[in-house]
What does this fold into?
Amino acid sequence: MAKVLEPNATIVGREDLSEELAIFQVALDEALPEGDWFVPGQYMVIGVNNIQEPELGGVQRPMSIASEPAERKHVEFYIRRVAKPESKNPLTHSLFQLGESERVFLRPKPKGHFTIPGTIGPEDERWRIYVSAGTGLAPFVSIARDDISHGRSVAKTCVIHGVSRSGDLGYREELEAMERDHGLVYIPTVSRPAECPDWSGICGRAEDCFKDQGIEMLESKMGLESGSLGPDHSAVLVCGLQGTIGESILRLSGRGFVPAEKKIRKALAIPEERTPSLFFEQYDSDPVIDLEDQEILSQLRSGLGLD
Ligand SMILES: Cc1cc2nc3c(=O)[nH]c(=O)nc-3n(C[C@H](O)[C@H](O)[C@H](O)COP(=O)(O)OP(=O)(O)OC[C@H]3O[C@@H](n4cnc5c(N)ncnc54)[C@H](O)[C@@H]3O)c2cc1C
It folds into this structure.
């Protein structure tokens, strides 16, 4: 039998956005370390025991933290129940059966480098374009909340959030308030508008903001001159599944955005002096770019002006 986990945390809040999407607030039993106990953008590993099939034991998966370090009552996660799981004991299927006051396991030490210090660095004054599909929004919520709490400007932060239906737009009100009160640029976009007739906003996937028409809209929302979006004054951080990341890399190569990932840089023979301007955190495990595909490689090389 698989190992049963010893719970060390309690669900203290749960908000359901749909049957497949929820925000969970979890409180650890042990006191949190003093001060800023994680770097916004990091993740924690959450675990649950399978109640319906106890013989399957526990399962643990990484989840980005959506709360900020200053929030000491709980840690917040924005989680999708995966419709077609790959494993026999999917975490999200067990977790979605749990509500307030139920017990879970949380590895106490946050991990990961998809943070501002771990990517562009805190001194970087360029625009930050955060691109997210679905729950990939979580690390950006944490970063923006932390920036605002510390009095740092978010006026050069643009949050693109792509979802299927408008009801899936987690943190919408909070991001709208950040736009209204702090000048953050918030771009929610819905890919199945036919399923939400009340939606009158932008339609399409997050990465469609990097198609020709999308870039025009983006530049206009960011107050940039048409045709000027580029790595000299913007850096891009993408979080979510393979499709969003791969398409963002491909489409933005035409504007000179250089991916940070070593494997991609090596395959494209990007010279050292071309500093990275596109960083990503991937939630699934498919290769973001098929590096065997010569057509894709040559599209990227020519976009980046490497030929
Ligand atoms: C660093 C990191 C941070 C993560 N943060 C989050 C988060 O904040 N919120 C969140 O919901 N998930 C997040 N994930 C994904 C999460 O860890 C699990 O992979 C996911 O919840 C599925 O686990 P499962 O056990 O239910 O399904 P499994 O049967 O174990 O399936 C895992 C597979 O599901 C697919 N998958 C993963 N995430 C999704 C998704 N959102 N939509 C559709 N398919 C998916 C992938 O192909 C993945 O390999 C993160 C992953 C990583 C690596």
Notes: DSSP finds seven helices and twelve strands in the chain.
